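Retro notes (design track)

What went well: tokenization of the new backbones is finally stable.
What didn't: we kept losing track of which sequence belonged to which structure.
Fix going forward: every design gets posted as structure first, then sequence, in one message. First example under the new rule, 298 residues:
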């Protein structure tokens, strides 16, 4: 077996070869070391060359005169080979899910019910569920939340509603870039405390700009009607992207200041509209930052 772990390329190379794949399957159930047990149309030399390669990569080992998959090889068999075979056997069921997801005349909850039924009646129920196919995910770690909302923001093309009580420098930089350079409309409800609020960070850049390009970008943003900034106290954060994708935080009432859990749904126009309505309700009582007010009333 290799002293170092295999690379992805080394793992997938034998999986793309029909005969190597068959040898792995044989080893999963165990076989005696003879090419006579192999039914494929290859020579004895070709068989043993593949067997040696699979042993060298750590897929297969010899125990008690039988070739068997190692723990690594067994995981590859169950996690990749068998899973892909099950997926391919249910190709038309998956096509039916795609057709259903594209239908605009089906309410979302009905779509999810039918998708779940397709999965339960197929060979896929042990490897996937309806929430996987409906773009639904639960996020329990704050760093993963940052990655998720950043990915959603990267995909934004037209309009984002964001109510946030957190700050991440990379996310903020991406947001300002999208507004200044890609024509994104950003509705931002800032729930951060005054010392680190968006207004104070923008003011700091204008007072001591790191470079001319950043200064000009911030100047464009605060003058732009596509950038709506308000301040309000928030109990939880949420984001809506292009009227379809949503990500929202749930609150732990014991520790309301700490991040607890977030839910992301990549295709839910109904929930998106409800959160946009909620955003507009919050904005009615929100404060317009002095920086924005002074610039736009000139």
């Amino acid at each position: 077996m290799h002293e170092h772990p295999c690379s992805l390329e080394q793992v997938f190379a034998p999986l793309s070869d029909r005969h190597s794949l068959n040898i792995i399957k044989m080893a999963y159930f165990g076989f005696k070391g003879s090419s006579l047990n192999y039914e494929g149309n290859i020579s004895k030399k070709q068989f043993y060359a593949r067997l040696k390669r699979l042993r060298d990569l750590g897929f297969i080992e010899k125990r008690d005169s039988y070739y068997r998959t190692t723990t690594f090889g067994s995981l590859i068999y169950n996690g990749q080979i068998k899973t892909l075979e099950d997926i391919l056997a249910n190709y038309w069921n998956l096509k039916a899910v795609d057709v259903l997801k594209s239908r605009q005349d089906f309410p979302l909850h009905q779509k999810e019910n039918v998708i779940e039924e397709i999965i339960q009646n197929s060979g896929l129920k042990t490897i996937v569920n309806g929430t996987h196919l409906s773009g639904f995910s639960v996020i329990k770690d704050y760093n993963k939340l940052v990655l998720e909302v950043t990915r959603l923001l990267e995909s934004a093309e037209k309009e984002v509603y964001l109510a946030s009580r957190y700050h991440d420098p990379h996310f903020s930089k991406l947001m300002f870039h999208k507004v200044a350079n890609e024509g994104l409309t950003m509705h931002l409800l800032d729930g951060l405390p005054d010392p680190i609020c968006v207004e104070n960070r923008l003011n700091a850049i204008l007072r001591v700009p790191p470079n001319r390009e950043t200064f000009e970008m911030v100047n464009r943003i605060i003058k732009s009607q596509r950038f709506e900034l308000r301040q309000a106290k928030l109990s939880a954060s949420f984001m809506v992207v292009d009227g379809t994708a949503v990500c929202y935080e749930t609150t732990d009432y014991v520790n309301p200041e700490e991040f607890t859990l977030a839910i992301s749904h990549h295709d839910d126009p109904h929930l998106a509209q409800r959160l946009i309505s909620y955003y507009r309700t919050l904005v009615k009582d929100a404060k317009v930052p002095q920086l924005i007010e002074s610039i736009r009333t000139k």
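Added context from the reviewer: Residues 71-89 form the longest helix (19 residues).
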